[in-house]
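Exercise 7. Predict the joint structure of the components listed below.
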Amino acid sequence: MRESIHIPYQPKNVEPVEMRLRAQALYARWNARRSVRFFTDTPVDAAIIDALIAAAGTAPSGANKQPWTFCAVSDPVIKARIRAEAEEEEKTFYSSRASKEWLEDLAPIGTDWEKPFLEMAPWLIVVFKHVQDVRPNGEVKKNYYVSESVGIACGLFIAAIHEAGLSTLTHTPSPMNFLGSILGRPAHEKPYLLLPIGYAAPDATVPNITRKPLEEIRVRYTEGER
Ligand SMILES: Cc1cc2nc3c(=O)[nH]c(=O)nc-3n(C[C@H](O)[C@H](O)[C@H](O)COP(=O)(O)O)c2cc1C
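Solution:
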């Protein structure tokens, strides 16, 4: 049975010493990533964005349903509409919708309702998750672990953007259903994340916050260690 539906696969062998160096170098590179909220308007070639989206599309997904669409927007008219509607939602969020605790948690990040980066960055990528699978003939099928799958694809996307030498922000205007209307997406696609992509402004700043150390996020269960 397995033979009839599987094909051979053997990833390239890496020696443990080289493996460790690679893992450490990867951590060093990814640890230098920050969410950027200040961009230049320097254009980024569409082919670069396409390659980054293709990289994100290599993510694993529940039953291989690949329940995602990446809308890549560089049209200034659409970007201006997205900014206007996002800022409307954000104004209500910061003035009434957000709880006191949420606002306190956001204080060290220093964000407010204004989102100029939504027009400044050369690209806005709006990621949609497919809550159902709708075939070209209109047949509706189930998708599985949709949020987990799209989250993993977005994680790869963010890492790929950083590896390529560009910057992004994981942005979640709340609520963000307006994105489906602006971009004319079908009802089974729900907006998941909004990511501006571009070059960080020369005077860009980031919140002075820290990451949890390894010891705080890793629990080991090796023989004799516990
Ligand atoms: C699911 C998710 C939603 C986020 N939403 C926003 C957002 O709406 N606005 C914003 O400025 N940052 C947002 N962020 C970015 C976080 O504030 C940021 O990742 C965190 O402070 C850590 O900073 P770093 O990405 O520079 O390491 C979001 C991050 C995640 C993962």
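Discussion. The chain has nine helices and six strands.
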